[in-house]
Amino acid sequence: MYNAWLAQLIERGQVTGLWLDSRWNNVLFDLLASGLGKFFSLQVTEKIAASLCVLIFFWGMFALVATASERAPWFLVPLFAMIAYGYTFHMGFFNYYLSLGLSFFGIAIFWRGKKWERLIPLALAPLILLAHPLGLAWMAGAIAYIAIAQAIQARHQPWLLLAAGMTLVLIHFDFWRHYEIMAQSKGFYFFNGADQLLLFGPRYDIPRIALICFPLVALGVDIYGRIHEGDDWRKYFIPAQLYVVLLLAAGLLPDAIRFRPGNSALIALLTERLTSVSAVVFCCVLGVMRPRWWHLLGFTAIAGVFFALVYQDTKIVNNMEQQAERLERTLPRNSRVLATIQPLAGSRILVQHIADRACIGYCFSYGNYEPSSEFRVRAVPGNPYVMSDYDLVVDMEDGTYEVQSEDLPAYQLYECSSDGTELCIRPLEAGEENDRLGIHRDD
To answer: How many other CB atoms sit within 10 Å of the CB of residue 429?
Structure first.
């Protein structure tokens, strides 16, 4: 939303040294926010745009699971809600999030479509690419796998699964050989889809572990019943295979990759993003189960715990953002603000951009990373509003950036309590590290 505000300033000619790139990917949400911003305030715009994305993701997920199971999966609605408000949502990856929601619709249409209906995903492809290329890659790969699996006999499908695994191995070695990569530090088994529920701290292990154990019990009961009754297993085949492929991808693909050397941004947190897809495909497996009343009861109980925790933690983050806004309003208008706000204790969710959002309409986030990366708003060196060197932005976020005389006047927003929830602001001086006075807990 902060960069949507910058885009408005650029379009009105109210800033110099910033410009809008004519991009063909990773911009659909930005264009949506900018378009709505012409008719509504940014406060109203963000609510409309975010709500629209959640609805697209939720109902795309619902459509895909309904297609895989050939029934409306109402008993999984609490699970859908948790995934929709999981890691990807709270990290703010809205272009990627939107691309996945649209891709789920495309895959669902192809899976059960007839003749010309199977061409509809081609019409969705440009829109998905405009949102994020990873969503298009997922849709293309899933459609290819489903098409081949449907064309061959079930007894030959393990060979298809093996071919998909070998393809991932080849991609793994190509990435490690030709590009700058960052390997995932956690084991692939962690990224099974339930990790989407692990947000602001270790307390979220409660719903995460429950979301592993309860579905396994439910699947075990259903499988036992099918064996006892001699029921058909074939609906499980393709969803289960897709899920295995995604587990392999989590283990073989890098967590971050830089395709171009030099001062270009890493495409980061790929494994964490991928598990949004893993979670939805696992829902496809669960959707094949014959619904029982206790399924809905169990998923509702897990969702109740999850959303209670989310409410408590987002309340803390909201209070921190209100602090940031009050502190920034004490500065002269159009001041440059640098911020070093670390995640809450044990949290996987980055919250430093609350400083950017609090600046809307009043100040400039000098450490905003988007203009120096592959995004729509871009910056030329020497502009007075934002750092144009991505590596220096990373140093600033780490608190180790050495302030230059040309950066001044500038102000540092930093954590000034051991729990990280209290914020302070101060003027910076040339030659000092920007987070010299910040207090950070040891995680």
So the answer is: 11
